[in-house]
Design goal:
The complex is a heterodimer. By secondary structure, chain A is an alpha+beta fold. Chain A is built from two helices and three strands, in the order E-E-H-E-H. Helix content of chain A is 18%, strand content 22%. Chain B has twelve helices and two strands, in the order αααααααααββααα. The termini of chain B are far apart. In chain B, a hairpin with a 4-residue loop joins strand 1 and strand 2 (258-260). Classes of the chains: A alpha+beta, B mainly alpha.
């Protein structure tokens, strides 16, 4: 019974109205224990009102080697930003 | 593209020079990975072993107020060890290996924890000086180039400032107390001053890794720069307490705008690093005992998780 406990990624909502944010990871035997441990490790100073735990192996991540083809196409699409459009200064509320 | 002519190492260095953080799945030189695994795990081990000298006093605090504070501090240190172990694991070492390296005595941790905490005043001096020195180092590390390490440091620094303040408050109470209490505070300062100065590591000229560490932004300041910062900020704090730092060469240098200080006993430093400190054996023994005595809890949790998983599998079958 020496197998290592799986790693869990921990997400905390700091207060209602805000999203859960990734704050770190920890080991636990199961999801219940992951939540208990997350409470002790990541919310000792009222940092959270809600906890999500996801076993790390269930997360699919993009490959940093492919960052070019994934993210570069957005770089030359400046027309997606409001500042691309030239308007006279006297136009308000736009 | 220009990048095609650059080697992976050069591209990596460019990223660092441009202030980019390196993340877990990014390509990195093998030496960068190894250096970080070593440094982050040693840092984590220091937090874990660092619980022992203070745990020593939890049952004997003078008041309940001091007890809850000390308990919270020691619990924080367990948490800090976990943040750091998680950061190390992103580089490909397992928790099992980390535990094994510490428990077998193969891994190093900060030598400061191989000094004994013989009086209650030591809880004050440790919080004030040891945590004070650690904070200087850790604030620098919030800007380190490896993302997971930097993020762990941000979290740790936020929590650590209470540690130093509670230590200083203990010193303040003792220094405002009876003659005997003040003497206890002075005695603790006498014993902890030089070991705290050693926490920043060897002098720059004797620290062969500094150059590469600076280039990779693993460190942003040298050992001697950090040590000077510690002296400059601690001297006025000692003056407020009304106790004397045990260094006859300590004096303000108008020209440099810094305090000059005496020579550190590097022989003692290396002796403790090599395992001959007063508490090296005891710390490792206590750590192993705690680990072994927790085995049944770990086994029970694993057995329970397995049982639940089997039940669930049956239900869905």
């Amino acid at each position: 019974m020496n197998k290592e406990w799986p790693i869990w990624e921990i997400f905390i909502r700091s207060k209602n109205g805000l999203e859960h944010r990734h704050c770190g990871s920890l080991h636990a035997a199961d999801e219940e224990m992951a939540i208990q441990n997350a409470r002790d490790v990541y919310t000792r100073r009222q940092e959270g009102v809600s906890i999500w735990v996801v076993e790390s192996k269930h997360i699919t991540a993009s490959n940093p080697k492919k960052n070019g083809e994934l993210f570069e196409p957005a770089a030359d699409k400046v027309y997606r930003h409001p500042t691309f459009y030239d308007l006279p200064d006297e136009i308000k509320h736009m | 593209m220009e990048n095609k002519t650059l080697s992976l190492d050069e591209q990596f260095q460019n990223r660092i020079d441009n202030g980019d953080n390196i993340e877990a799945k990014d390509w990195m030189p093998e030496k960068y990975r190894k250096t970080h695994i070593r440094q982050i795990s040693q840092h984590g081990h220091s937090e874990i072993i660092g619980m022992l000298p203070e745990g020593n006093w939890i049952t004997r605090t003078p008041t309940l107020r001091r007890k809850v504070a000390l308990l919270a501090k020691v619990q924080d240190e367990a948490g800090h060890g976990l943040y750091l172990y998680s950061a190390a694991e992103t580089l490909g070492i397992s928790r099992e290996e980390l535990n094994e390296q510490l428990n077998s005595g193969r891994a190093k941790y900060s030598s400061i924890f191989n000094y004994p905490t013989v009086s209650w005043a030591d809880m004050g001096a440790v919080g004030w000086l040891v945590d004070g020195a650690a904070i200087i180092n850790q604030v620098m590390l919030t800007k380190t180039s490896y993302g997971p390490y930097a993020r762990a440091m941000v979290r740790i620094c936020k929590e650590e400032s209470f540690h130093q303040r509670q230590g200083y408050e203990i010193m303040l109470s003792l220094c405002n107390g009876t003659e005997v209490q003040k003497a206890m505070a002075q005695d603790a300062l006498n014993r902890w001053w030089w070991p705290s100065m050693m926490m920043f590591g060897p002098r720059d000229e004797d620290s062969p890794n500094t150059e590469q560490s600076m280039k990779w932004k693993i460190k942003k300041k040298t050992n001697d720069e950090l040590r000077q910062q510690f002296v400059d900020q601690t001297v006025p704090q000692a003056e407020i307490l009304g106790i004397t730092i045990p260094d006859k060469d300590l004096k303000w240098n108008e020209e440099r705008g810094h305090y000059d200080f005496g020579v550190i006993d590097w022989e003692e430093f290396w002796n403790v690093v090599k395992g001959n400190g007063l508490m090296n054996d005891k710390r490792l023994k206590d750590r192993n005992e705690a680990w072994d005595e927790g085995k049944w809890v770990r086994d029970a949790a694993s057995a329970y998780a397995d049982k639940q998983a089997t039940k669930r599998a049956k239900k869905t079958a």
